[in-house]
TrEMBL record, chain A:
Transmembrane in keyword set: yes
The name this protein goes by in its record: Anti sigma-E protein RseA N-terminal domain-containing protein
Anti sigma-E protein RseA N-terminal domain span: 2-65
SUPFAM superfamilies: N-terminal, cytoplasmic domain of anti-sigmaE factor RseA (SSF89069)
Database matches in PANTHER family: ANTI-SIGMA-E FACTOR RSEA (PTHR38104:SF1), PTHR38104
Keyword Oxidoreductase among record annotations: no
Swiss-Prot/TrEMBL keywords: Membrane, Transmembrane, Transmembrane helix
Gene3D superfamilies assigned: Anti sigma-E protein RseA, N-terminal domain (1.10.10.880)
Any one GO molecular-function label of the UniProt entry: sigma factor antagonist activity
InterPro entries from the UniProt entry: Anti-sigma-E_RseA-like (IPR052383), Anti-sigma_E_RseA_N (IPR005572), Anti-sigma_E_RseA_N_sf (IPR036147)
Membrane-spanning intervals of the chain: 83-104
Length: 168, 326
């Protein structure tokens, strides 16, 4: 299914297959999470300032009950992706891996819309209600850890990489 | 101490030669030196748990030292079988559940995870009280407890269990000033000083078929455009500037001045940026994530953010006192 998802994101599926994927996305929360990640990773890889496949979210949203009214908000928020746009890929992806995808947990994100569910339990998070602050703090923490010679922090980033998002 | 000990000490272990055996009568100071050395000399493999916040991670670690350089592999034992292969040059994250491998370069500064620097030990004792605790047992091995308590509220303390035989840190607790444990790292089992075949360091996930994401070389050339230089007006006792650089933060695509202050054990980073006109307001005041605290402040038309694995008061003091140099 993941290969299909990937092809779907590239608009390489036929109509029938596409419908299957959409149906699958509508019912499989885990698949939706994968899909979100693909989006982020690709956006970063391609250094695109907007959602990599414009309209994809809407396409999916249309298929999902309850999601239609919010379809316009389903796109990954622009400022966040723009922030991600110019960056060195690995650093970004690693930061995402380390800190557990907060970037995608913004209001209006597809998974919440689609599922109408509470987001999964979080990995450790900053106690701020401003997502953009969290993004900044995470980035700074990654930089900081490079230079902190001592501390549990030395292992923390690695532990978070291998451990993130486990409780979904 | 290597408290990177967590993984630090534990991580940077070096293999092959056994460290000098510990001797009864060694001081806390001696034990810290021993822990540091063990980390640089010993091969080991085992499994550890790491508890932070309300999370508990279990990982397998294989650590080999050959020709003076360390190669290490971490494998998640729960959930997705993510792996990290760490060499002195790069960090490879295998994320099979993402069909991805992420490769990051390590910066020169981070080579070797130096953990505690023995030469700063005497000085450290001004800010930390160090003493031997009882002996105990961790991962089935006799261990010596070494306790490091901050003498003021500006840094955390540590409780360390060093392997009696080799000095390798087997367990580490990060302590708040009331001596409550904030985070813990502990080996559940470990084999020290064993031969490690190259195959044990190979990822179990074949890289073939996965998407590889490679970080581009980081340009810190932005340093040429270095605008102003900043400094902390107030520092907790013992903290001093250990590094100053101007760099582009990849994840933010911003150029910032990055100052690193350290007391030899605790480290605080301060980032100074000049926000674009019309940019969103940056974080003001305190924030925290587990044992890590941050503090944001506005100074003239610059934004200052202090971050570190230290108590809130430390980042507030440092971050709140930043000012441009003359």
């Amino acid at each position: 299914m993941k290969e299909k998802l990937s092809a779907f994101m590239d608009n390489e599926l036929g109509e029938l297959e596409e419908r299957r994927v959409l149906a699958e996305l509508a019912t499989d929360a885990e698949l939706r999470v994968t899909w979100e990640r693909y989006h982020l990773v690709r956006a970063v890889i391609r250094e695109e300032g907007v959602a990599p496949v414009p309209g994809l979210s809407e396409r999916v949203a249309r298929q999902l009950p309850d999601a239609a009214p919010a379809a316009a908000g389903a796109r990954v928020p622009r400022p966040l992706l723009r922030a991600a746009a110019g960056l060195a890929l690995a650093a970004a992806v690693a930061a995402v891996a380390i800190f557990g995808l907060q970037v995608l947990r913004q209001p209006g994100q597809p998974a919440q819309l689609a599922a109408g569910k509470t987001p999964r339990a979080e990995t450790a998070r900053w106690n701020t209600d401003r997502p953009e602050h969290e993004t900044t703090l995470n980035a700074y923490l990654v930089e900081h850890n490079e230079f902190a010679p001592t501390g549990m922090g030395g292992m923390t980033p690695y532990a978070r990489v291998v451990g993130y998002d486990r409780e979904k | 101490m290597n408290i990177r000990t967590g993984v630090g000490a534990a991580l940077p272990l070096v293999g092959a030669l056994l460290a000098a055996p510990a001797v009864a009568g060694d001081s806390a100071h001696d034990w810290l030196v021993k822990m540091d050395q063990a980390g640089r000399r010993l091969n080991y493999e085992g499994a550890f748990v790491y508890q932070h916040g309300d999370r508990l991670e279990a990982m397998r670690i294989v650590h080999k030292v050959a020709n003076g350089s360390v190669r290490e592999r971490l494998v998640a034992l729960n959930g997705a079988a993510r792996e990290i292969i760490r060499t002195e040059r790069e960090v490879l994250c295998y994320l099979p559940d993402e069909n991805s491998v992420v490769v990051e370069h390590r910066k020169a500064d981070s080579l070797g995870f130096p953990a505690i620097r023995p030469e700063r030990l005497p000085e450290l004792e001004k800010y930390y009280q160090m003493r031997l605790g009882k002996t105990g047992r961790v991962a089935g091995r006799p261990a010596q407890v070494v306790i490091i308590l901050a003498r003021d509220g500006y840094r955390y303390g540590y409780r360390l269990w060093a392997d009696q035989e080799t000095g390798l840190p087997l367990k580490a607790d990060l302590l708040a000033d009331d001596e409550k444990t904030i985070e813990q790292f502990m080996f559940a089992h470990i084999n020290i000083g064993v031969a490690i075949p190259a195959s044990a360091l190979a990822p179990s996930t074949p890289g073939k078929g996965l998407t590889w994401h490679r970080e581009r070389a980081v340009e810190d050339s932005a340093a040429a455009t270095q605008p102003e230089r900043w400094q902390a007006g107030r520092l907790p006792e013992g903290f001093r500037l250990s590094k100053r650089l101007v760099r582009k933060v990849p994840a933010l695509n911003k150029v910032v001045e990055h100052l690193v202050y350290s007391d030899g054990l605790a480290t605080v980073s301060v980032f100074i940026e000049k926000p674009e006109p019309g940019a969103r307001p940056e974080m003001l005041g305190p924030s925290r994530m587990g044992a890590v605290h941050a503090f944001g402040a506005r100074v003239d038309d610059h934004h200052v953010t202090a971050v570190g694995e230290v108590p809130a008061a430390t980042v507030a003091l440092i971050g709140g006192s930043m000012a441009p140099l003359e």
